[in-house]
Write a structure and sequence with these properties.
The chain has about 525 residues and is of the alpha/beta class. The protein is built from 17 helices and 25 strands. Strands 7-5-4-3-2-1-23-24 form an eight-stranded mixed β-sheet. Strands 8-9-10-11-12-21-22 form a seven-stranded mixed β-sheet, with helices on one face. A six-stranded parallel β-sheet has the order 15-14-16-13-17-20, with helices on both faces.
Length: about 525
Protein backbone atom coordinates (compact mmCIF):
# COMPACT_ATOMS: atom_id res chain seq x y z
CA UNK A 1 0.00 0.00 0.00
CA UNK A 2 2.07 2.88 -1.31
CA UNK A 3 0.87 6.44 -1.86
CA UNK A 4 2.99 8.79 -3.98
CA UNK A 5 2.33 12.53 -4.18
CA UNK A 6 2.83 13.82 -7.72
CA UNK A 7 1.07 17.19 -8.04
CA UNK A 8 -0.62 20.07 -6.19
CA UNK A 9 1.78 19.60 -3.28
CA UNK A 10 2.65 23.00 -1.84
CA UNK A 11 0.96 24.31 -5.01
CA UNK A 12 -2.68 24.98 -5.86
CA UNK A 13 -2.99 23.31 -9.25
CA UNK A 14 -1.93 20.10 -11.01
CA UNK A 15 -3.53 17.63 -8.60
CA UNK A 16 -2.24 14.04 -8.97
CA UNK A 17 -1.64 11.15 -6.56
CA UNK A 18 -0.62 7.55 -7.25
CA UNK A 19 -1.78 4.56 -5.23
CA UNK A 20 -0.08 1.17 -5.62
CA UNK A 21 -1.98 -1.64 -3.95
CA UNK A 22 -3.42 -5.12 -4.58
CA UNK A 23 -1.23 -5.44 -7.71
CA UNK A 24 -2.95 -2.38 -9.19
CA UNK A 25 -1.70 1.10 -10.04
CA UNK A 26 -4.27 3.87 -9.53
CA UNK A 27 -4.07 7.60 -10.15
CA UNK A 28 -6.36 9.91 -8.22
CA UNK A 29 -6.74 12.97 -10.47
CA UNK A 30 -4.39 13.86 -13.32
CA UNK A 31 -4.47 17.64 -13.46
CA UNK A 32 -2.74 20.35 -15.43
CA UNK A 33 -0.72 23.04 -13.67
CA UNK A 34 -2.09 26.54 -14.23
CA UNK A 35 -0.05 29.64 -13.53
CA UNK A 36 3.67 29.51 -12.71
CA UNK A 37 5.29 26.45 -11.16
CA UNK A 38 6.86 26.76 -7.72
CA UNK A 39 8.20 23.20 -7.54
CA UNK A 40 9.19 20.79 -10.31
CA UNK A 41 6.52 18.10 -10.22
CA UNK A 42 7.65 14.49 -10.03
CA UNK A 43 6.92 12.67 -13.28
CA UNK A 44 4.51 9.74 -13.01
CA UNK A 45 7.06 7.03 -12.11
CA UNK A 46 5.40 4.21 -14.08
CA UNK A 47 4.60 3.55 -17.70
CA UNK A 48 1.13 5.05 -18.36
CA UNK A 49 0.21 1.76 -20.05
CA UNK A 50 0.71 0.06 -16.66
CA UNK A 51 -1.80 2.30 -14.88
CA UNK A 52 -5.01 0.35 -14.28
CA UNK A 53 -7.44 3.06 -13.15
CA UNK A 54 -7.84 6.80 -12.72
CA UNK A 55 -10.25 8.04 -10.04
CA UNK A 56 -11.35 11.59 -10.83
CA UNK A 57 -12.73 13.93 -8.15
CA UNK A 58 -14.14 16.50 -10.58
CA UNK A 59 -13.83 18.01 -14.03
CA UNK A 60 -11.80 21.18 -13.45
CA UNK A 61 -8.72 21.18 -15.67
CA UNK A 62 -6.29 21.39 -12.75
CA UNK A 63 -7.63 17.96 -11.75
CA UNK A 64 -8.42 16.41 -15.14
CA UNK A 65 -6.42 18.32 -17.74
CA UNK A 66 -3.58 15.85 -18.33
CA UNK A 67 -5.82 12.83 -18.98
CA UNK A 68 -5.47 13.27 -22.77
CA UNK A 69 -1.68 13.34 -22.39
CA UNK A 70 -1.86 10.19 -20.27
CA UNK A 71 -3.90 8.56 -23.06
CA UNK A 72 -1.44 9.81 -25.69
CA UNK A 73 1.41 8.14 -23.77
CA UNK A 74 -0.31 4.78 -23.64
CA UNK A 75 -2.90 4.72 -20.83
CA UNK A 76 -5.86 2.57 -21.84
CA UNK A 77 -7.36 1.78 -18.42
CA UNK A 78 -10.66 2.99 -16.97
CA UNK A 79 -11.40 6.48 -15.62
CA UNK A 80 -13.99 6.38 -12.82
CA UNK A 81 -15.96 9.54 -11.99
CA UNK A 82 -19.51 10.66 -11.29
CA UNK A 83 -21.90 10.83 -14.23
CA UNK A 84 -21.84 14.63 -14.31
CA UNK A 85 -18.03 14.75 -14.20
CA UNK A 86 -17.89 12.33 -17.12
CA UNK A 87 -20.29 14.54 -19.09
CA UNK A 88 -18.34 17.71 -18.30
CA UNK A 89 -14.95 16.20 -19.11
CA UNK A 90 -16.13 15.20 -22.54
CA UNK A 91 -16.50 18.88 -23.47
CA UNK A 92 -13.87 20.40 -21.18
CA UNK A 93 -11.00 18.20 -22.35
CA UNK A 94 -11.88 18.89 -25.98
CA UNK A 95 -11.94 22.60 -25.18
CA UNK A 96 -8.53 22.36 -23.50
CA UNK A 97 -7.12 20.55 -26.53
CA UNK A 98 -8.65 23.13 -28.88
CA UNK A 99 -7.02 25.97 -26.94
CA UNK A 100 -3.64 24.24 -27.14
CA UNK A 101 -3.95 23.51 -30.85
CA UNK A 102 -5.02 27.11 -31.51
CA UNK A 103 -2.11 28.45 -29.45
CA UNK A 104 0.31 26.16 -31.33
CA UNK A 105 -1.00 27.44 -34.66
CA UNK A 106 -0.62 31.06 -33.51
CA UNK A 107 2.88 30.48 -32.12
CA UNK A 108 4.00 28.66 -35.23
CA UNK A 109 2.98 31.55 -37.46
CA UNK A 110 5.30 33.76 -35.42
CA UNK A 111 8.01 31.09 -35.14
CA UNK A 112 8.11 30.53 -38.88
CA UNK A 113 8.73 34.23 -39.49
CA UNK A 114 11.45 34.26 -36.83
CA UNK A 115 13.06 30.99 -37.94
CA UNK A 116 12.34 29.34 -34.58
CA UNK A 117 11.53 25.63 -33.98
CA UNK A 118 7.96 24.42 -34.44
CA UNK A 119 5.77 24.42 -31.32
CA UNK A 120 3.83 21.20 -30.73
CA UNK A 121 0.69 21.19 -28.55
CA UNK A 122 0.78 19.03 -25.45
CA UNK A 123 -2.09 16.98 -26.86
CA UNK A 124 -4.73 17.16 -29.56
CA UNK A 125 -8.50 16.92 -29.82
CA UNK A 126 -8.04 13.31 -30.96
CA UNK A 127 -6.22 12.59 -27.67
CA UNK A 128 -9.02 14.25 -25.71
CA UNK A 129 -11.61 12.17 -27.54
CA UNK A 130 -9.60 9.02 -26.83
CA UNK A 131 -9.43 9.79 -23.12
CA UNK A 132 -13.16 10.56 -23.00
CA UNK A 133 -13.97 7.07 -24.26
CA UNK A 134 -12.28 5.58 -21.18
CA UNK A 135 -14.73 7.15 -18.68
CA UNK A 136 -17.05 5.07 -16.54
CA UNK A 137 -19.77 7.16 -14.87
CA UNK A 138 -20.80 6.29 -11.31
CA UNK A 139 -23.66 7.40 -9.02
CA UNK A 140 -23.16 9.26 -5.77
CA UNK A 141 -23.28 7.21 -2.59
CA UNK A 142 -22.88 3.71 -4.03
CA UNK A 143 -19.97 1.52 -2.90
CA UNK A 144 -18.34 0.12 -6.06
CA UNK A 145 -16.11 -2.95 -6.21
CA UNK A 146 -13.11 -1.98 -8.33
CA UNK A 147 -10.90 -5.07 -7.99
CA UNK A 148 -9.97 -7.69 -5.40
CA UNK A 149 -9.23 -5.73 -2.23
CA UNK A 150 -10.33 -2.33 -3.62
CA UNK A 151 -13.73 -0.61 -3.23
CA UNK A 152 -14.57 3.04 -3.91
CA UNK A 153 -17.44 5.50 -3.33
CA UNK A 154 -18.14 9.02 -4.61
CA UNK A 155 -19.63 11.49 -2.10
CA UNK A 156 -20.90 14.94 -3.10
CA UNK A 157 -18.75 17.83 -1.82
CA UNK A 158 -20.62 20.66 -3.57
CA UNK A 159 -17.67 22.31 -5.33
CA UNK A 160 -18.74 21.82 -8.94
CA UNK A 161 -21.44 19.92 -10.77
CA UNK A 162 -20.50 16.28 -10.22
CA UNK A 163 -17.64 16.99 -7.82
CA UNK A 164 -16.90 14.39 -5.16
CA UNK A 165 -14.58 13.27 -2.47
CA UNK A 166 -13.52 9.69 -3.11
CA UNK A 167 -13.56 7.05 -0.39
CA UNK A 168 -11.21 4.13 -1.08
CA UNK A 169 -11.29 0.87 0.93
CA UNK A 170 -8.15 -1.30 0.69
CA UNK A 171 -7.46 -4.84 1.90
CA UNK A 172 -4.04 -6.32 1.19
CA UNK A 173 -1.97 -8.98 2.97
CA UNK A 174 -4.34 -8.98 5.93
CA UNK A 175 -4.16 -5.18 6.36
CA UNK A 176 -7.27 -3.02 5.89
CA UNK A 177 -7.08 0.73 5.39
CA UNK A 178 -9.47 3.41 4.20
CA UNK A 179 -8.40 6.57 2.37
CA UNK A 180 -10.46 9.65 1.62
CA UNK A 181 -9.39 12.06 -1.13
CA UNK A 182 -11.27 15.31 -0.52
CA UNK A 183 -10.93 16.72 -4.02
CA UNK A 184 -12.02 20.36 -3.79
CA UNK A 185 -14.51 20.99 -1.01
CA UNK A 186 -17.35 23.34 -1.84
CA UNK A 187 -18.38 26.54 -0.13
CA UNK A 188 -21.54 26.56 1.98
CA UNK A 189 -24.85 28.05 0.80
CA UNK A 190 -23.78 28.59 -2.81
CA UNK A 191 -26.42 28.84 -5.53
CA UNK A 192 -27.48 25.81 -7.57
CA UNK A 193 -25.41 23.07 -5.91
CA UNK A 194 -25.85 21.15 -2.65
CA UNK A 195 -23.66 21.78 0.40
CA UNK A 196 -20.73 19.39 1.00
CA UNK A 197 -21.56 15.99 2.52
CA UNK A 198 -19.45 14.78 5.44
CA UNK A 199 -17.65 11.44 5.58
CA UNK A 200 -17.54 9.64 8.92
CA UNK A 201 -14.52 7.29 8.86
CA UNK A 202 -11.01 7.13 7.38
CA UNK A 203 -7.51 6.02 8.26
CA UNK A 204 -5.94 8.59 5.95
CA UNK A 205 -7.37 11.82 4.53
CA UNK A 206 -5.96 14.03 1.80
CA UNK A 207 -7.53 17.46 2.22
CA UNK A 208 -7.26 20.50 -0.04
CA UNK A 209 -6.16 23.83 1.46
CA UNK A 210 -6.82 26.45 -1.22
CA UNK A 211 -8.34 28.81 1.36
CA UNK A 212 -6.71 27.16 4.37
CA UNK A 213 -5.39 30.46 5.72
CA UNK A 214 -8.37 32.75 5.28
CA UNK A 215 -12.07 33.22 5.79
CA UNK A 216 -14.62 34.31 3.22
CA UNK A 217 -16.22 36.34 6.01
CA UNK A 218 -19.95 36.90 6.37
CA UNK A 219 -21.87 35.80 3.31
CA UNK A 220 -22.55 38.94 1.26
CA UNK A 221 -25.77 39.72 -0.53
CA UNK A 222 -24.50 38.71 -3.97
CA UNK A 223 -27.50 40.04 -5.83
CA UNK A 224 -27.33 43.42 -4.07
CA UNK A 225 -23.58 43.80 -4.67
CA UNK A 226 -23.78 42.70 -8.30
CA UNK A 227 -26.69 45.10 -8.85
CA UNK A 228 -24.60 47.99 -7.46
CA UNK A 229 -21.65 47.21 -9.73
CA UNK A 230 -23.81 46.89 -12.84
CA UNK A 231 -25.82 50.05 -12.09
CA UNK A 232 -22.72 52.20 -11.45
CA UNK A 233 -20.91 50.88 -14.52
CA UNK A 234 -23.88 51.30 -16.86
CA UNK A 235 -24.47 54.82 -15.55
CA UNK A 236 -20.86 55.63 -16.56
CA UNK A 237 -21.53 54.18 -20.01
CA UNK A 238 -19.19 51.22 -19.56
CA UNK A 239 -19.32 47.44 -19.74
CA UNK A 240 -19.13 44.94 -16.90
CA UNK A 241 -16.58 42.31 -17.95
CA UNK A 242 -16.59 39.17 -15.81
CA UNK A 243 -13.72 36.70 -16.25
CA UNK A 244 -15.52 33.52 -15.31
CA UNK A 245 -14.82 29.83 -15.47
CA UNK A 246 -17.11 28.41 -18.13
CA UNK A 247 -18.21 25.57 -15.90
CA UNK A 248 -19.69 26.38 -12.51
CA UNK A 249 -19.02 30.06 -11.98
CA UNK A 250 -20.71 31.18 -15.21
CA UNK A 251 -23.88 29.29 -14.28
CA UNK A 252 -23.84 30.85 -10.78
CA UNK A 253 -23.56 34.34 -12.27
CA UNK A 254 -26.47 33.61 -14.62
CA UNK A 255 -28.48 32.51 -11.57
CA UNK A 256 -27.91 35.94 -9.94
CA UNK A 257 -28.47 37.87 -13.17
CA UNK A 258 -31.80 36.09 -13.73
CA UNK A 259 -32.95 37.28 -10.30
CA UNK A 260 -31.76 40.85 -11.00
CA UNK A 261 -33.69 40.84 -14.26
CA UNK A 262 -36.81 39.25 -12.76
CA UNK A 263 -36.95 41.82 -9.95
CA UNK A 264 -36.10 44.75 -12.29
CA UNK A 265 -33.30 45.93 -9.99
CA UNK A 266 -31.35 47.86 -12.67
CA UNK A 267 -32.86 51.27 -13.38
CA UNK A 268 -32.57 53.27 -16.60
CA UNK A 269 -31.12 50.39 -18.59
CA UNK A 270 -34.15 48.19 -19.11
CA UNK A 271 -33.54 45.07 -21.13
CA UNK A 272 -29.76 45.29 -20.77
CA UNK A 273 -27.86 42.60 -22.63
CA UNK A 274 -25.85 39.79 -21.10
CA UNK A 275 -23.38 37.95 -23.30
CA UNK A 276 -21.95 34.55 -22.46
CA UNK A 277 -18.97 34.38 -24.78
CA UNK A 278 -17.88 30.78 -24.45
CA UNK A 279 -18.91 27.72 -26.47
CA UNK A 280 -17.87 25.61 -23.49
CA UNK A 281 -20.18 27.53 -21.15
CA UNK A 282 -23.09 26.90 -23.50
CA UNK A 283 -22.35 23.16 -23.56
CA UNK A 284 -21.82 23.10 -19.80
CA UNK A 285 -25.18 24.74 -19.17
CA UNK A 286 -26.85 21.92 -21.10
CA UNK A 287 -25.01 19.41 -18.90
CA UNK A 288 -26.15 21.28 -15.78
CA UNK A 289 -29.75 20.84 -16.90
CA UNK A 290 -29.18 17.15 -17.66
CA UNK A 291 -27.86 16.44 -14.15
CA UNK A 292 -30.11 18.75 -12.13
CA UNK A 293 -31.90 16.06 -10.11
CA UNK A 294 -28.64 14.51 -8.89
CA UNK A 295 -26.79 17.74 -8.18
CA UNK A 296 -29.06 20.79 -7.71
CA UNK A 297 -30.03 21.97 -4.23
CA UNK A 298 -33.65 22.16 -3.04
CA UNK A 299 -34.02 25.91 -3.67
CA UNK A 300 -32.93 25.61 -7.30
CA UNK A 301 -35.07 22.54 -7.91
CA UNK A 302 -38.06 24.46 -6.54
CA UNK A 303 -37.63 27.01 -9.36
CA UNK A 304 -37.42 24.20 -11.91
CA UNK A 305 -40.65 22.70 -10.61
CA UNK A 306 -42.34 26.08 -11.15
CA UNK A 307 -41.27 26.03 -14.78
CA UNK A 308 -38.51 28.62 -14.27
CA UNK A 309 -35.13 28.04 -15.87
CA UNK A 310 -32.78 29.20 -13.08
CA UNK A 311 -29.97 30.15 -15.47
CA UNK A 312 -31.77 31.74 -18.42
CA UNK A 313 -33.65 35.02 -19.00
CA UNK A 314 -34.61 37.61 -21.65
CA UNK A 315 -31.63 39.54 -23.03
CA UNK A 316 -29.22 36.63 -22.69
CA UNK A 317 -27.09 36.02 -25.80
CA UNK A 318 -24.85 32.99 -26.22
CA UNK A 319 -21.81 33.56 -28.43
CA UNK A 320 -20.35 30.44 -29.99
CA UNK A 321 -18.47 31.40 -33.15
CA UNK A 322 -15.47 33.71 -33.23
CA UNK A 323 -17.41 36.15 -35.42
CA UNK A 324 -20.17 36.35 -32.78
CA UNK A 325 -17.49 36.97 -30.17
CA UNK A 326 -15.93 39.81 -32.16
CA UNK A 327 -19.30 41.50 -32.70
CA UNK A 328 -19.78 41.95 -28.94
CA UNK A 329 -17.16 44.69 -28.90
CA UNK A 330 -18.90 46.52 -31.78
CA UNK A 331 -22.01 46.91 -29.60
CA UNK A 332 -21.80 50.38 -28.00
CA UNK A 333 -24.58 49.81 -25.47
CA UNK A 334 -23.54 49.05 -21.85
CA UNK A 335 -23.64 45.30 -21.28
CA UNK A 336 -22.45 42.42 -19.15
CA UNK A 337 -19.87 40.10 -20.72
CA UNK A 338 -19.08 36.74 -19.13
CA UNK A 339 -16.14 35.03 -20.75
CA UNK A 340 -13.47 32.42 -19.94
CA UNK A 341 -10.93 31.82 -18.61
CA UNK A 342 -11.58 32.80 -15.03
CA UNK A 343 -7.93 33.71 -14.30
CA UNK A 344 -7.50 35.52 -17.65
CA UNK A 345 -4.71 33.19 -18.73
CA UNK A 346 -6.27 32.12 -22.04
CA UNK A 347 -9.42 32.23 -24.11
CA UNK A 348 -11.75 34.96 -25.31
CA UNK A 349 -11.65 36.96 -22.07
CA UNK A 350 -8.28 38.38 -23.08
CA UNK A 351 -9.85 40.04 -26.13
CA UNK A 352 -12.56 41.62 -23.97
CA UNK A 353 -9.93 42.85 -21.53
CA UNK A 354 -8.00 44.40 -24.42
CA UNK A 355 -11.14 46.34 -25.41
CA UNK A 356 -12.14 47.39 -21.87
CA UNK A 357 -9.18 47.61 -19.48
CA UNK A 358 -8.13 51.00 -20.85
CA UNK A 359 -11.68 52.42 -20.47
CA UNK A 360 -12.30 54.14 -17.13
CA UNK A 361 -16.05 53.73 -17.71
CA UNK A 362 -15.84 49.92 -17.64
CA UNK A 363 -15.54 47.46 -14.76
CA UNK A 364 -13.68 44.16 -14.63
CA UNK A 365 -15.36 42.04 -11.97
CA UNK A 366 -13.54 39.03 -10.54
CA UNK A 367 -15.75 36.32 -9.10
CA UNK A 368 -13.31 33.54 -8.28
CA UNK A 369 -9.89 32.59 -6.98
CA UNK A 370 -6.91 34.10 -8.81
CA UNK A 371 -3.75 31.99 -8.54
CA UNK A 372 -0.36 33.59 -7.94
CA UNK A 373 1.32 34.59 -11.19
CA UNK A 374 -1.84 34.81 -13.30
CA UNK A 375 -3.02 37.91 -15.13
CA UNK A 376 -6.14 37.91 -12.97
CA UNK A 377 -4.05 38.02 -9.79
CA UNK A 378 -2.00 40.93 -11.19
CA UNK A 379 -5.15 42.94 -11.89
CA UNK A 380 -6.66 42.20 -8.49
CA UNK A 381 -3.41 43.30 -6.84
CA UNK A 382 -3.51 46.68 -8.62
CA UNK A 383 -1.38 46.40 -11.76
CA UNK A 384 -1.28 49.70 -13.67
CA UNK A 385 -0.34 48.09 -16.96
CA UNK A 386 -0.51 44.56 -18.37
CA UNK A 387 0.50 42.86 -21.60
CA UNK A 388 -2.11 41.38 -23.90
CA UNK A 389 -1.16 39.78 -27.23
CA UNK A 390 2.33 41.20 -26.86
CA UNK A 391 1.16 44.79 -26.42
CA UNK A 392 1.03 46.93 -23.24
CA UNK A 393 -2.47 47.91 -22.09
CA UNK A 394 -3.00 50.61 -19.45
CA UNK A 395 -5.40 49.65 -16.67
CA UNK A 396 -7.97 52.41 -16.19
CA UNK A 397 -11.10 50.29 -15.72
CA UNK A 398 -12.54 49.80 -12.24
CA UNK A 399 -11.35 46.48 -10.80
CA UNK A 400 -13.88 44.86 -8.45
CA UNK A 401 -14.00 41.57 -6.57
CA UNK A 402 -17.28 39.96 -5.56
CA UNK A 403 -16.12 38.91 -2.11
CA UNK A 404 -17.07 35.54 -0.77
CA UNK A 405 -18.23 34.06 -4.07
CA UNK A 406 -15.96 31.07 -4.20
CA UNK A 407 -16.49 27.45 -5.08
CA UNK A 408 -13.97 26.52 -2.40
CA UNK A 409 -14.66 26.19 1.30
CA UNK A 410 -12.73 28.68 3.41
CA UNK A 411 -10.64 27.79 6.46
CA UNK A 412 -13.71 27.38 8.67
CA UNK A 413 -15.43 25.24 6.03
CA UNK A 414 -12.40 22.97 5.66
CA UNK A 415 -12.14 22.55 9.43
CA UNK A 416 -15.85 21.78 9.66
CA UNK A 417 -15.50 19.09 6.99
CA UNK A 418 -12.48 17.39 8.59
CA UNK A 419 -14.18 17.48 11.99
CA UNK A 420 -17.06 15.53 10.48
CA UNK A 421 -15.07 12.30 10.92
CA UNK A 422 -16.29 10.41 13.99
CA UNK A 423 -12.75 9.46 14.99
CA UNK A 424 -9.54 11.19 13.99
CA UNK A 425 -7.73 9.64 11.01
CA UNK A 426 -4.26 8.20 11.56
CA UNK A 427 -2.87 10.99 9.38
CA UNK A 428 -4.15 13.97 7.43
CA UNK A 429 -2.18 14.99 4.34
CA UNK A 430 -2.63 18.68 3.43
CA UNK A 431 -2.39 19.33 -0.31
CA UNK A 432 -3.67 21.67 -3.02
CA UNK A 433 -2.72 25.01 -1.50
CA UNK A 434 -0.12 27.74 -1.92
CA UNK A 435 3.31 26.95 -0.52
CA UNK A 436 3.01 28.53 2.93
CA UNK A 437 -0.72 27.84 3.21
CA UNK A 438 -0.18 24.07 3.17
CA UNK A 439 2.21 24.38 6.11
CA UNK A 440 0.12 26.83 8.13
CA UNK A 441 -3.11 24.87 7.64
CA UNK A 442 -1.37 21.60 8.57
CA UNK A 443 0.00 23.30 11.71
CA UNK A 444 -3.46 24.66 12.55
CA UNK A 445 -5.09 21.22 12.29
CA UNK A 446 -2.36 19.71 14.46
CA UNK A 447 -1.94 22.39 17.12
CA UNK A 448 -5.54 23.53 17.51
CA UNK A 449 -7.53 20.40 16.68
CA UNK A 450 -5.21 17.51 17.51
CA UNK A 451 -4.85 15.92 14.07
CA UNK A 452 -1.63 14.23 13.00
CA UNK A 453 -0.77 16.12 9.85
CA UNK A 454 1.77 16.21 7.02
CA UNK A 455 2.12 18.69 4.15
CA UNK A 456 3.91 16.55 1.55
CA UNK A 457 6.08 17.72 -1.33
CA UNK A 458 5.97 16.27 -4.82
CA UNK A 459 7.66 12.87 -5.03
CA UNK A 460 7.00 12.01 -1.38
CA UNK A 461 6.04 8.34 -0.84
CA UNK A 462 4.19 6.83 2.14
CA UNK A 463 3.65 3.23 3.23
CA UNK A 464 0.01 3.21 4.29
CA UNK A 465 0.21 -0.17 6.00
CA UNK A 466 2.74 1.16 8.52
CA UNK A 467 1.96 4.91 8.39
CA UNK A 468 5.58 5.66 7.55
CA UNK A 469 7.35 7.82 5.01
CA UNK A 470 9.38 5.86 2.46
CA UNK A 471 10.83 8.76 0.46
CA UNK A 472 11.16 12.49 0.99
CA UNK A 473 9.60 14.89 -1.50
CA UNK A 474 11.42 17.47 -3.59
CA UNK A 475 11.59 20.82 -1.78
CA UNK A 476 13.80 22.55 -4.35
CA UNK A 477 12.12 25.56 -5.91
CA UNK A 478 12.22 26.17 -9.64
CA UNK A 479 14.53 29.01 -10.61
CA UNK A 480 13.20 31.63 -13.01
CA UNK A 481 15.11 30.29 -16.04
CA UNK A 482 13.70 26.81 -15.50
CA UNK A 483 10.23 28.30 -15.19
CA UNK A 484 10.68 30.22 -18.43
CA UNK A 485 11.80 27.09 -20.26
CA UNK A 486 8.90 25.09 -18.83
CA UNK A 487 6.41 27.54 -20.35
CA UNK A 488 8.13 27.63 -23.72
CA UNK A 489 6.21 24.60 -24.90
CA UNK A 490 7.24 21.41 -26.65
CA UNK A 491 9.42 21.69 -29.75
CA UNK A 492 9.42 19.12 -32.52
CA UNK A 493 12.69 17.74 -31.11
CA UNK A 494 11.04 17.44 -27.67
CA UNK A 495 8.27 15.49 -29.37
CA UNK A 496 10.86 13.15 -30.89
CA UNK A 497 12.42 12.59 -27.47
CA UNK A 498 8.99 11.81 -26.02
CA UNK A 499 8.41 9.33 -28.84
CA UNK A 500 11.74 7.69 -28.06
CA UNK A 501 10.74 7.31 -24.42
CA UNK A 502 7.47 5.73 -25.52
CA UNK A 503 9.39 3.28 -27.71
CA UNK A 504 11.57 2.28 -24.75
CA UNK A 505 8.45 1.70 -22.66
CA UNK A 506 7.13 -0.52 -25.45
CA UNK A 507 10.40 -2.46 -25.53
CA UNK A 508 10.15 -2.99 -21.76
CA UNK A 509 6.77 -4.61 -22.33
CA UNK A 510 8.18 -7.04 -24.92
CA UNK A 511 9.54 -9.47 -22.33
CA UNK A 512 6.33 -11.46 -22.35
CA UNK A 513 5.90 -11.48 -26.13
CA UNK A 514 6.60 -14.39 -28.45
CA UNK A 515 10.02 -14.52 -30.12
CA UNK A 516 8.31 -14.05 -33.48
CA UNK A 517 6.68 -10.75 -32.40
CA UNK A 518 9.87 -9.47 -30.76
CA UNK A 519 11.87 -10.24 -33.89
CA UNK A 520 9.28 -8.50 -36.06
CA UNK A 521 9.42 -5.32 -33.93
CA UNK A 522 13.25 -5.39 -33.92
CA UNK A 523 13.30 -5.67 -37.72
CA UNK A 524 10.91 -2.71 -38.04
CA UNK A 525 13.04 -0.55 -35.71
CA UNK A 526 16.21 -1.55 -37.59
CA UNK A 527 14.58 -0.64 -40.91
CA UNK A 528 13.56 2.76 -39.54
CA UNK A 529 17.09 3.40 -38.27
CA UNK A 530 18.59 2.35 -41.64
CA UNK A 531 16.28 4.81 -43.39
CA UNK A 532 17.22 7.82 -41.23
CA UNK A 533 20.88 7.21 -40.32
CA UNK A 534 23.20 9.35 -42.41
Amino acid sequence: MRLTFLGADHEVTGSCHMLETCKKVILVDCGMEQGPDIYENQEIPVNPADIDYVLLTHAHIDHSGLLPLLYKRGFKGTIFSTYATSDLCEVMLRDSAHIQEFEAEWRNRKAKRAGKPEYVPLYTIADADGASKLFCGCPYGERIHLADGIDIRFTDVGHLLGSACIEVWLQEDGVEKKLVFSGDIGNLHQPILKDPTHVETADYVLIESTYGDRSHGPKPDYVKELTRIIQETFDRGGNVVIPSFAVGRTQEMLYFLREIKAKKLIHGHDGFKVYVDSPLAVQATTIFNKNMYDCFDEETLALVKKGINPISFPGLSLSITSDESKMINFDDEPKVILSASGMCEAGRIRHHLKHNLWRQESTVLFVGYQAVGTLGRSLVEGANEVKLFGEPVEVKAHIEVLAGISGHADKEGLISWIQGFRTKPQRVFVVHGEDQVCDTFAACLHEEYGFTTTAPYTGEIWDLATNSRIAEGNQERIVKEQRKNAKAGMTVYDRLVETGKRLMRLIDQCKGWTNKDIAKLADQIQALCDKWEK
